Please model this.
Amino acid sequence: MLSVSSSTLARLAARSRAAAAVSSASVRNMGMQVREEIEELPPNFSMDAVKPPPHGFGDQHEEDMDPMAYVRKPVSSVHSIDLSKGTISALDSAAFGPSGSVVHGRFGNVGASAAQTIPLEYLAFLRPAAEGAAALREISEGGKTGTVLVYGASRPAGLSAVQLATASGNAVVAVVDGQHSGHDEMVDTIKGLTSEPGTAVAEQYALCKANFRDLVEKTVSGDDFTSFDFNSNQYQFLSDFKANVLDYVEAFPSDLPAAVDSEQLKFTGKEKDRANFKANMNAYLSQYQPGADPIDPAQLEANFNVDQYEIFKKKFVTQTTAIISGGDGVTNIDRFAPAELVNKMSMQPESTDGAKADDGDYPFEFSIKSAPAATTPMTKGGPIVGAIIEVTPDLAVACEAVAAAKTLREKAEALQFLTEPQKSAYGAASSIIGLAKKAGAAVRTVGGSLPGLDAVEKPSEKDIQTALEGMELGDDGTSKLNYFIQVYRASDYAIYEDYAIHRAKEPLSGPRQIVVTK
Model:
């Protein structure tokens, strides 16, 4: 027999009691461990015995600055570029003055309250912004709203006019001049600054005078597609369809193995491949629909009416839907000959009794029997209020050359010897000016003067205040006036001033306004 000493039994009993205690505690406390006893602090312990960290308690730790790091110098002024002189502008500039105010080079003290909410870089464009406000005030005397036409919409004054006119409730049709019209993203951005039904187009679009005139008319009157007289024009749609069917039958007759161009059936390969050409072509042409039998034009004209067209269109929609969706189990998606279907319906018209022709209507489906219902509210810009033309270098040269000519022949010769950008600028601006004058609206130029047009007057105090209010940043960080600015910090590197002037004088300087800070 095995004998166990009393000390051994005591140790085993103690272990079992400890395990049971832990198990019961784990069950009661959902798996939490037994709390450990905390040792008592020594009698000589005090808070002064714990030394604080090097950066102190509660204070933000500041790392030692790298001695090689460059510290930017504070900005005291901002200047725009004067392209006529090839230097930074002393008038179109802004500098910090005493008591936190800002002093503008042209308009004087701006005030401390405005300086707190307006970016300093924006104040370099206070003159073009005030000119845009003044031009808008002059063409909309009495506070009337409507459609405003703007040329040079990506330049400072034109950009200000677009945004101020939109904020005043006008529909703006903006034209981006040739300097930036090739930048699609810039054109889309200007379009986003307008509100419906306003829009923005590139200069090349305004050269197509008929298309631009239609665009302005749609903006003025609203693009109401439901106003189209379908009852009087449904037969025009039907006659166009019949003409297309007869042209299809003539182009792809039934004696062709498939409805393909006859040029594809000619053998143009090497003589050794002629033996297999027909077999290969038959396999290739099997994927196409067959040609169409001749259709009697008289029967087509007499029997294929509006109701028959509606029935045909329902069949065509069902067929194409089955092909796109992979088949519905009923429709034959391998063969569908529309011309053959029209031929049968013209020889023996199908019945239109019941709801056969109207079965399965689809939203937004075109029908020549009834006009579609309006889905969105129609917006109208209203009559043309006026036009604002920003004088660009190309436009100024073109207008001066044409104005200097006396006879019509001399004017034509002057246009002939202009560069393409100058011709485009003259043509696009002429489209805007012509529409404004035809509507009896005023035309104002900003950023300079043009022969035969009224330049904007000197901005008044109210115009300057309107521009400043448009530049102020709201609580949400937005403002009525926004610009695309590229800043060159000459306060840090003096050479940046010359480089900024060089970039601004480039032929295509890019869709942004350059400013220099000092």
Q: What stands out?
A: The first helix runs from residue 6 to 28. The CA atoms of residues 55 and 62 lie 8 Å apart. Residues 1-14, 16-31 have pLDDT under 50 and may be disordered.
